[in-house]
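Lecture 7, part 2: worked example. A protein chain together with 5-O-phosphono-beta-D-ribofuranosylamine.
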Amino acid sequence: MALKLVVLISGRGSNLAAIVHAIAAGTCRAHIARVVSDREGAEGLMFARAHSLPVTTVAMTAHPDRSAWDAALTAAVAAEAPDLVVLAGFMRLLGPQFLARFPQRVINVHPALLPLFPGIAGPADALAAGVRISGCSVHIVDAGIDTGPVIAQAAVPVLPGDDARSLHARIQGAEHALLPRVIDAIASGEISLWPELRIDAGSNAQDVLFSLGPTAPTP
Ligand code: GRF
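Predicted complex, written out as structure tokens:
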């Protein structure tokens, strides 16, 4: 079954682009019903418009408080009745109304091997800790900061001379492969999220769950 997605972004949208390209290539059984951003200026919105994807901006500043923003974001996404909500560089914590409306149906991609290095500085924190391997995680979103159950991870090396930017670029190369593969594995039923995370032990999903990412960044 092709999954109906709503993708939430705040920035560049390279993970959104990876999903769009994988769908076009037939390797990600999904379609994107709408792209929603909290920032009108998000670069990824230009990409979405250029690919004829419906877009909506729900800015925090356009609402009197966080609860009103939460209600507006929830309504904008619920209007599409998505099977799955994908956070692809969405830089705000979801509110309680949103999470109650889409329990176990929101996934996020994070640039570190969770539970290590949650938060906005995953690559820099990994470098500061001196780890030799980092990577990315796709996880179910709960009310915490990058705390929900981990679905899949891909590892990349930390190379001599790396700074946060070069490490993040290498991690993003892994993200661009992992996130569409996880969405496809959910579409195929190899990975179930609801009512709770379950992975079909007999499926090909194992190679999705534990993968070695590229050693070079993707453009
Ligand atoms: C990604 O590295 C993702 O892990 C993090 O935010 C970044 C978004 O990048 N949550 P992009 O907007 O998809 O290029």
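The first helix runs from residue 14 to 25. Residues 152 and 184 are 12 Å apart (CA to CA). Keep this in mind for problem set question 3.
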